Amino acid sequence: MRCEAADVMVVGVLAAAALAGWLYLAFAHGGFWRTGPGLPGAPEPDEWPEVAAVVPARDEAAVLPETLPTLLAQRYPGAFRVILVDDGSGDGTAETAAALGGGDPALTIVPGRERPEGWAGKVWAMAEGVRAAGEPDFLLFTDADIAYAPGTVEALVRAAVAGRRDLLSQMATLSTRTGWERVVVPAFVYFFAQLYPFRRVGRDGARTAAAAGGCMLVRRTVLAEAGGLARIRGALIDDVALGRLLKRAGGRCRLDLGRGVVSRRPYPRLADLWAMITRSAYHQLRYSPVLLAATVAGLLLLYAVPPAATIAGLIAGPAGEGGPALAAGALAWALMAATYVPMLRFYGLSPLRAPGLPLVALLYAAMTVDSARRHRAGRGGAWKGRTVSERTVPGRTLSGRHKSGAADASRTSLE
Q1: Could you tell me which residues belong to the region Disordered (predicted)?
Q2: Residue ranges of E strands in 164-235
Q3: For the chain, which terminal residue's Cβ has fewer other Cβ atoms within 10 angstroms, N or C?
Q4: CA distance 67 to 144
Q5: Nearest by Cα to 409 from 367, 372, 354
Q6: What's CA 237's distance to the chain center, in Å?
Q7: What is the rounded CA–CA span in Å between residue 215 and residue 147?
Q8: Are 358 and 336 contacting, i.e. CB atoms less than 8 angstroms apart?
Q9: Would you state the pLDDT for residue 388?
Q10: Which pLDDT tens digit goes with each residue over 346-358?
Q11: How many helices (H) and strands (E) does the chain have?
Q12: Where are the beta strands (DSSP E) in 41-113?
């Protein structure tokens, strides 16, 4: 009996710690759980700036028919062109893009040159696009799987000019057509926002900096003054690294969720989502076993302890020894679920899924551990035929200061 009472007491202490964490996250962490209104309305600028969209593309022939035409069809009032960088594709990406362009002078296809040592593949392709762009006022870095609703580029530029933003990024709406996508994707965005609260990203002077790689409108002169893409050449998580680079250089940033920017890349199987997350999760932890252990412990404390304490409290007796564990665990669980509901609604999913977030968090913990295992086995960072291991990532800490916390396990580039 004494042993059981001691066990319940330990669970109660852990539940109280979890509750303290959720009280902070819910009420003092930048309102990370609010999905927000998206881009603000803005007046027409006095003069429309020139914009060059840079699209790194490696083996994207299958998805380009759904995305590239949406960029070329933008009715932007100023000068606008699209530069697609064929990053060593073997599936006819360049030929597909040329056919889709149909001779449109707004489309330039650039064959990527050999990647220099020390550069991550995507960042080098982005740099090749910048080189070919000349001197536009803004660079729109976007991914080959991203589709744009009509008027989106104009709305981005209006907001950037009116708000004097040097980086304006929109997180693409990801696919939730399959069962596993509906389980994993909303949680991914939720965890991302928990790690990088959007309102803090947009606050001048705040240390939080991030971006979403699917759509990043960048003022070219500010990027050049910050040292250019060479400063983040080894970054596997290029979007967050770019956000940090610009904000540390004094750039004014904004990050939103938006429906005008949509990812067309499907993830029909759990294995597809698993591969996407494991390729960069351990990199985010700087290949540190200590940070890996801390992240897994944080996930267990914040997400597994509340439901476990709730159940343990019920079993031990709510009116007796189990009361404190039950109260703390249930309240922490309720706060967790409540903060998840807005993201579920954003993706058109039932709020009844919210109490199941602990199970999704455990899935992310398993993915993070597997990411470390893959890196140790020399198979880390595998993507588009390239494998990047811990030993070969040049400048692997260029993505900036690590922030520990439960959401670290989620950070990858699904967009």
Answers
A1: 378-415
A2: 167-173, 215-219
A3: N
A4: 7
A5: 367
A6: 9
A7: 10
A8: yes
A9: 54
A10: 999 999 999 999 9
A11: 14, 8
A12: 51-57, 80-86, 107-111
